[in-house]
Amino acid sequence: MTQPRTSRAGIKQAMVLAAGLGTRLRPITNRMPKPLVPVAGKAMIDYGLDALADAGVTRAVVNVHHFPEMMEAHLAGYSHLDILISDERAELMNSGGGLKKGLALLEPGTVYVMNADLFWVGENPGEAGNLERLAGFFDPETMDMALLCVPLERTTGHNGKKDFQLDPDGGLSRYQDGGDNPVVYAGAIVMNSALLDDAPENAFNLNIYFDKAIAAGRLFGLMMDGEWITVGTPEALPAAEAVIARVTEKA
C-alpha cells in the first residue's frame, strides 16, 4: 500500500485487539510482539489496519502489552489512521476488558472491533470490502453484534475448530456436532460501544457477550469474501505466505 486511503461514509472508529503474548509463535515472539511478525514482508497488524482504512475508518485504538515500545514505534509510523494507544503494560485485560478499556478512548457509537493477528486477502475487486459489507449488514435494532465469518475450507493456519453455526437468516449460535453450516469467527465485529457500558472494569473474555447475544437472539454473522489467514505458530508462516502469493498473482 503506497497511496493514502480516502475516507468514505460509514463507521469512522475502530478498536484493534493487539495485546496478546503470542506464546505459540515462540521463539519469534521472544523478540517481537505477534502483531509485528512479518507475513509476506508486511507486519501482521498492518493487514487489518489497511482494511480499516480502506473501509473509511479514520481513528483506531490499539492496545499494547508485549514489547509495547516496539508496538508504539511501529504504530506511530502508520500514516493512514489516527492511532491511539490503550496501555495494558501493567495488566492484561483479556479480550473483553481490553475492548472496554479501549472504547473509553473513542466517541460513543458504532465501531469496528478487530483482532490484530487475523486477516484476509482476495476480496472481490470493484466490490465493497468485507468491513463495509459488515457495517451495512449490522442492524442495531435487531443485533448486539455482527461478526464476520468464514467457512473452514477458506481458512489457512486455523486449528479446525468450528466456532458457530450460521442460520439462513444470519443468526449465530454455538456450533454443535452435526450442526448445519458451521463457520469460523474471522476476527471482525461491528457493534455499538454502548453494549459494554455495563461491563466490568477488570479483565474478562468477550465470549461472555457473544453468549449473552446468542441467548437474546441478537448475535448475527456475515460470510466474508476471500481467503482468511491466521499465523499461530512458526510452521504456519509458509502456508500463509503461499496463499498471499497465490491471491496476489491472480489479482
From TrEMBL:
Biological source species: Neorhizobium alkalisoli
InterPro entries cross-referenced by the UniProt entry: GlmU-like, NTP_transferase_dom, Nucleotide-diphossugar_trans
Protein name in the entry: MurNAc alpha-1-phosphate uridylyltransferase
Gene3D superfamilies: Spore Coat Polysaccharide Biosynthesis Protein SpsA, Chain A (3.90.550.10)
CDD domains: NTP_transferase_like_1
Residue span, Nucleotidyl transferase domain: 14-119
Keywords in alphabetical order: Nucleotidyltransferase, Transferase
Domain of life of the organism encoding this protein: Bacteria
Pfam families in the cross-refs: NTP_transferase
GO molecular function: nucleotidyltransferase activity
